[in-house]
Amino acid sequence: MKLKTFVSVTTAMSLVASLVWTATPVRAGQDGDNGDRGVGDARGHDQDQDQDHDGGHHGRKPRVVMISLDGAKPDFIQKFIEEGVLPRDGGLARLSRRGAVALQNVTASPSLTAVSHIAIATGSTAVHNDIPSNTFEPIVGPISGSISGFAAPIGGYSENPLGPSPHPTAVPLWVQLRQQGKKVVTATWPGGDGADISINKTVVQPAQPTRITDFTVPFGAFGGIGAQGFSLSRGDFTADPSIVTALQAAGHFSFSPMLVTSAPIETFSCSAAATATCTNASTLDVKYSIRVAAIDTTNDRKVNYDTLVFFDANRGITAGPFHAPSTGPAYVKFGGENAPFFFEGSGAKVGAAYFVSALSPDLSVVRFARYGANYIPRNTPVLADVDDINNNIGFWRPQADFRIPERLSPGFTSFSDVEIETMFEDMVKTFVRYQANIGERAIKTHPDADLVMVYIEQPDGSEHHC
Ligand SMILES: [Ca+2]
Predict the structure, then answer these.
(1) Partners of 217 in the beta sheet?
(2) Residue 33 has pLDDT above 90, yes or no
(3) Which strand (E) or helix (H) includes residue 259?
(4) Which residues surround ligand 1, an ion (CB under 5 A)?
(5) How far is the CA of 305 from the centre of ligand 1 (A)?
(6) pTM of whole model > 0.85?
């Protein structure tokens, strides 16, 4: 599975590199004009100061943009730059040449995501910040229970009486900076989630002030429906003039007779309430019934279906345009990327995506996946930020899901290893792009931030499981 890690790393690097340089276009331009100027050059810094001295905040860039590429060891990055896998003039290569590099780091132990990122955020180890693992057992909790390191009180809590600590033993950097009038933005950074943290149903750390910044985007959560593989063949499809009409009205034509699954490939339901998500069962109030149309987009006098359209038969096919988080039907070309599919009407703003991994020109073999459903937790104190992302970047995209390559999710037993591999790369690519877009959005909407902290889950998301 080495290749997966490899691809994940490179994908993450290229996209995040573009994010870095979007954040500092002035420096990027200078770099292009003058070439590398080495570690000691401070011209970029001077320029930032000049802008401040002019008294104008117009055009001011965030002072510090911190991007964590989870699990990306520096030697990986150097190796890939040297091999040309990462562009030699790309953002990471330039930062590597011009920036400062630590020869040796002392990693937090255990070197897990929650532990490391809370350590970075607080400047303390688990002894003080009380986050010893990604999952652990709080001593006041039941012996059978556990707590997520991402949803545990930073700096401890009071055991008796159970509640917030009157004297936390560690505090995130953003708390102190904001107390001093600085502006801090966190894009999916662990601990920056706007969540009230409870143990035994008692709040032990209210969101305010510890877990809130000036723009707080919580990391996504499971939307209640796991990934699933589907295998169909020609016999599952039939002609359906009403669907042809609807698709044509939406601007989609087929050069071979358009065919549609006669039965739904899956049904599920979601809650219209923002406090609940979705389920494979039909028990919730907003129902979905997914059918699939096959289209041949090539005018080559050959019957060679190449695109599948996934739509909710309960709502029908509408032309759009669609504004995020809405997507309308998912149009997925074989050989192309997954297409996101928003569960229209879900109160928690849940969505998934479809990906076609095998498609015979005559539909004798049709295999595709519906990735797992996710959403951004609608934590009340940061709801405006959550909706800013939902409405401008889109609902939380499917993450690289180890349950597919390990075939733990249903329906994938007949899929080839190559299909599964392609699928995993597809998930990594689109999810890293989504997280990078969130980071970019955070910077664009807060150009006067003093500190922007962006967390990117890859390549760690692949390394754990592949
Ligand atoms: Ca054709």
Answers:
(1) 187
(2) no
(3) strand 259-261
(4) 255, 296, 298, 300, 302, 304
(5) 7
(6) yes
